[in-house]
Amino acid sequence: MYEPELDPVIVGKVIAENRIKKKMSQEVLSGLSAIGRTHLSAIERGMRKPTLETLYKISQALGVRMSELVNEIENRAADAKRI
Questions:
Q1: Are 33 and 40 a contacting pair, CB within 8 Å?
Q2: Per residue in 31-65, pLDDT tens?
Q3: 19: buried, middle or exposed (CB in 10 Å: 19+, 13-18, 0-12)?
Q4: Burial class (CB in 10 A: 0-12, 13-18, 19+), 79
Q5: C-alpha–C-alpha distance, residues 59 and 46, integer Å
Q6: Superfamily of domain 8-82
Q7: Domain parsing of the chain, residue ranges
Q8: What 3-state DSSP class applies to 16?
Q9: What are the residues whose beta carbons fall under 8 Å from the beta carbon of 65, sequence distance 6 or more?
Q10: pTM score of the predicted model
């Protein structure tokens, strides 16, 4: 049976790029989203996968809809499959 997996590196890159676009440090984003800075760092490096709750908190702190982050993650995952 086919079991698709989500690449945590893609998730982390999308979050990091949005954070950088907003000119936020990891310290600021982690504070605004009420998660630990080391946890955020691990997510951005693809070492951990965020829960839906954590992704929602991050999206709110970034001032974007969670669906925007998910769409970007899905698009990049689809592009990665084509390579």
A1: yes
A2: 999 999 999 999 999 999 999 999 999 999 999 99
A3: buried
A4: exposed
A5: 17
A6: lambda repressor-like DNA-binding domains (1.10.260.40)
A7: 8-82
A8: helix
A9: 59
A10: 0.92
